[in-house]
């Protein structure tokens, strides 16, 4: 029994309508999902305070969502106008997202870049609509422009970074990389299919749907990646606050203990020496009383700056308490560390520039203790360096003292502490 041509035509029209309906329903669902992700970014940006990048990403995702909505509701405007505006909004959105990535990393943000990209893609589409009508040229223009913008963001993100931020960088950058190559491949595929296809309208429609779905899925992944990046950045900031002294930026006492002990254990495993230096600002109470606590804070920051000028990359510096700092020098014995301590003392006491606009006379006393005598135990080294520091205070300040044998220190420790305390009370 044969089927009439009219019936076959009705079936083809039904299949076409069914396919378009499914595509429209899926696109609408994805738009709603991406709109929800955009709202999440907007809320996060609203409460982010000074967090850089989030507001760019929220605005970029909003522009992308508006472009996607125009793509699936082209009946509201003329088809060509809707497509031109949609492409311009998506280009603007990806450009603003690129600016957000650069802002997140602390790089410059050329504000004219996204606007130029949006205007360029709209001019190209207008030309290939109204002057030289070519669906393939329009699709190639959209794919190349959006693909290049996505690859620019991927280039900013696929770089070495500190864990765990690196995972968020590479996750988001990988999505941007796949999106960029996918958009460029789509443009190339459209140009290739013109050689073998005679139905340009169907090709334009199918490529447009593929682009729509691909961009929306990528948008969901990008929004999740941006949230991860912000989350990990906040984690690192909290870790920085918990491990460092807020005034001087050095390690705080607890963090210095943990890191120094780990370094000492590594040095012991490799059979290397290490030396600990205790640094104390002389007459710091007098400085606070004479110039005020703000000047005292500036003195501590100046002291840390001077110490860091004589540190290597693997040395550790922490604030022990008040005006006392601990410096760990792995790989150096007592003799080499004494030379470093002497250079630090000379650099601090010979400074001529004013501190916080005040002519502050500053000097330090330093105590040195090495693993050659006290072993690779942080607590023992601190106690020995502290005893040597008391000796430097008792012998007139502004000097470096190296810790002696434990038996000698036990014999002289009480007398030196009493003398140091007496001189401190007299503030001489």
UniProtKB/TrEMBL annotation:
Catalytic activity: 2 GTP = 3',3'-c-di-GMP + 2 diphosphate
Every GGDEF domain range: 272-405
Record PROSITE patterns: GGDEF
Membrane-spanning segments: 24-46, 58-77, 83-101, 113-130, 136-157, 169-189, 209-229
Keywords, comma-separated and alphabetical: Membrane, Transmembrane, Transmembrane helix
EC class: transferase
SUPFAM superfamilies (alphabetical): Nucleotide cyclase
CDD domains for this protein: GGDEF
The protein's Enzyme Commission number: 2.7.7.65
Database matches in InterPro entries: Diguanylate_Cyclase (IPR050469), GGDEF_dom (IPR000160), Nucleotide_cyclase (IPR029787), Rev_trsase/Diguanyl_cyclase (IPR043128)
NCBIfam families: GGDEF (TIGR00254)
PANTHER family for this protein: DIGUANYLATE CYCLASE DGCM-RELATED, REGULATORY COMPONENTS OF SENSORY TRANSDUCTION SYSTEM
Full protein name: diguanylate cyclase
Organism: Halopseudomonas pertucinogena
